[in-house]
Structures are given as structure tokens and as C-alpha cells.
Design a protein that fits this description.
The chain contains ten helices and eleven strands. By secondary structure, it is an alpha+beta fold. The strands form two sheets. The protein has an eight-stranded mixed beta sheet with strand order 1-5-6-11-10-9-8-7, with helices on both faces. It has a three-stranded antiparallel beta sheet with strand order 2-4-3, with no helix packed on it. Helix 2 (about 70-80) runs parallel beside helix 9, helix 5 (about 160-170) packs parallel to helix 7 (about 180-195) and helix 8 packs antiparallel against helix 9 (about 275-285). The longest helix is centred in the first third of the chain and has 20 residues, at about 5-20. It is globular.
Length: about 325
């Protein structure tokens, strides 16, 4: 990253902090290392070993995880009595690096008490127009998006109907057919066919994702097939992922267990459910909405760069 880019990046970070200072949202810090991690089948965390926990044998190591996001810790703070909070921090995901991703990246995450997903969409939109000087966003439901671009209803379509869409776009492959997984096909259609068509001129918020794709979000009361989750796309980049947060501990544990069942079917390692996080939910998480926004991806748009390695100091290949 060039010096001029570094200065511009710093100015954007200051602008983000000013945005939250004006709204009286307080900056916090949470650990990068944790004894718990996510169960999401499509996220993998880095892990390490630690030998010095209290009341443990120095020769017996404890597995710790680098956090894929600060979400669990920030919700634990909310459950303990904190008000509205934000954080700019490093997050880590064991994924291939590329034009839009580095395995170590910078994340902005914030939580607003009393908000639902639509309240938070408005605030994310406000932040984007402040930082990017872009026009106001468009908003469309997940269901409407599929009907508009591929002429199928994602909430009722069969596996065959979804696979026929993929064949129509000449993207069929044996691994997709052999999966026999409607949710996997939906995610493939979204990322490979639909995503390139949205958010070209202004940010596009997609809301009300299928419940199977939103294990940490509240179910919609109007349609039990979907959850109150949203994502934001702009100029070919997925920028943000937010929820009206699930606050019921028992339902959350069920969702985590469903994640692990899917992990087992996919031949992935089953992850132990984060007890500290579940304990916090049982103590009581207030009504809130939260969102994670990729700072590095935001910088790509703000500074008109084509790849993430142009706006970070040391990409993984040079770390």
C-alpha cells in the first residue's frame, strides 16, 4: 500500500469514528483469541494452542481460535448491560485470498439497541453516503431478487428447478448436483448469477434471507420461511452483513446444532458450541440489530482500487 493510499485510508477511518461519535455509539475492544468459535458450515477459523490457562496442567494445551468476527464477544457485552457499541478490529478467516479477500482483514461491527433490520439498513445507508458520497441505496427482498433475475421463487423452488437455472447459465457441475442441497444451490445462484447484476450504481440492500442462511437472526413474523438478515452490495462487492439479532438462547442452540449436522454431512469438523456466548444469551440479550462491514472492501470503493492488496499494508503473501 502506497503512502498516499495509507493517508487516505486513515482519513476514512477517522470519518467512520466521527460518524459514531456523533451518534453516541461507543467504541469497544474485544479479544481476537477465544475458546469458542462459529459453527457456520461456510466459515473456518484459524486455531492455535495455549498452555497457560489458570487451573490447568502446563503440559495440557487448550485450543483457542482467532475470531472470524467480534460478534459473540460484543453480544456478551450487550448482555452484561452495555449500550450501543462499535468496533474496528482485525478478523480472521481460513479462506483463499483473492481480489476481495485477505485471510486477515479489518472489520467494522456495530450494534444498536432497539433497532430492527430496517432501522439498521437506514443507518448503514447513511454511513455509506457519508463515506462514499454515493447516492441512496435500493432495497429488495431475497425472494423478489430471485424472481426478478432468474424467474424462480427461492422459497418454494425444488432442487430440480434451481439446478435448471444453473444449467441455463452454463454453470452446472457434478458437485452441485451431487450435493442434493437446495440451500447450496441458492447460494451458488446468488453469488454466481445474481450478485453481478446488483448495486452497480448505488448500494443495494437485500433483506429477508432464507432461515437456513441466517442462524443468528430472528425469524420473520410475517413469513416463517425467512429471517431478518440483510446484506449490502455495491460495485460488485459484498460490503455488509447484518441481523435483527436472535435473543432466544434455546433457539440459538438449536440453530448451532443444525449447523453442526450440516458440517457432518459435508465431512467438516464439528465445532463445539460456544458456552460463554450461550450463557450470555440465557442471561439476557436486549432487542438489538447488528452489522459487520468490511473496511478493506469499503476502502477499495472509497479509494477507487481494484484489489484488496492495494489498500492493505501486507497481503498474506508478503506478511
Amino acid at each position: 500500500m502506497k503512502w498516499e493510499v495509507a493517508k487516505s485510508r486513515g482519513n476514512v477511518i477517522n470519518e467512520i469514528r466521527d460518524f459514531f461519535k456523533y451518534k453516541n455509539v461507543i467504541e469497544v475492544e474485544t479479544p481476537s483469541l477465544s475458546m469458542g468459535t462459529v459453527t457456520d458450515p461456510y466459515l473456518e477459523a484459524f486455531s492455535t494452542e495455549y498452555n497457560y490457562l489458570n487451573n490447568s496442567d502446563i503440559n495440557q494445551s487448550q485450543q483457542l481460535y482467532l475470531q472470524t468476527s467480534p460478534e459473540f464477544h460484543m453480544k456478551r457485552l450487550l448482555a452484561s448491560g452495555y449500550g450501543c457499541i462499535f468496533q474496528i478490529c482485525k478478523a480472521f478467516r481460513h479462506e483463499d485470498s483473492g481480489r476481495h479477500h485477505n485471510p486477515e482483514f479489518t472489520l467494522l461491527e456495530w450494534y444498536r439497541l432497539g433497532f430492527d433490520q430496517h432501522d439498521l439498513i437506514k443507518e448503514v445507508d447513511e454511513l455509506l453516503t457519508t463515506v462514499l458520497k454515493c447516492s441512496q441505496s435500493e432495497k429488495i427482498s431475497y425472494q423478489e431478487l430471485f424472481i426478478k433475475f432468474v424467474s424462480v421463487d427461492p422459497l418454494t423452488a425444488s432442487f430440480t428447478e434451481l439446478y435448471n437455472v444453473i444449467k441455463l447459465y452454463d454453470k452446472a457441475d457434478d458437485w452441485l448436483y451431487d450435493s442434493n442441497d437446495c440451500d447450496l444451490l441458492l447460494q451458488f445462484i446468488f453469488s454466481e448469477i445474481i450478485e453481478v447484476n446488483i448495486g452497480k450504481i448505488s448500494p443495494c440492500f437485500v433483506y429477508n434471507f432464507p432461515i437456513a442462511q441466517a442462524s443468528l437472526a430472528k425469524q420473520c413474523t410475517e413469513d416463517m420461511r425467512v429471517a431478518q438478515r440483510f446484506e449490502c452490495y455495491f460495485k460488485g462487492i459484498e460490503l455488509a452483513n447484518g441481523f435483527n439479532e436472535l435473543t432466544d438462547a434455546d433457539t440459538q442452540v438449536e440453530r448451532f446444532e443444525q449447523d453442526n449436522q450440516k458440517r457432518k454431512r459435508l465431512g467438516l469438523t464439528i465445532k463445539e458450541i460456544d458456552k460463554n456466548f450461550v450463557d450470555a444469551l440465557q442471561y439476557g440479550l436486549p432487542q438489538c440489530a447488528g452489522v459487520a462491514l468490511g473496511i478493506d472492501r469499503l476502502m477499495m470503493i472509497a479509494l477507487d482500487k481494484s484489489a484488496i492488496d492495494q489498500i492493505i499494508s501486507f497481503p498474506i503473501d508478503h506478511a
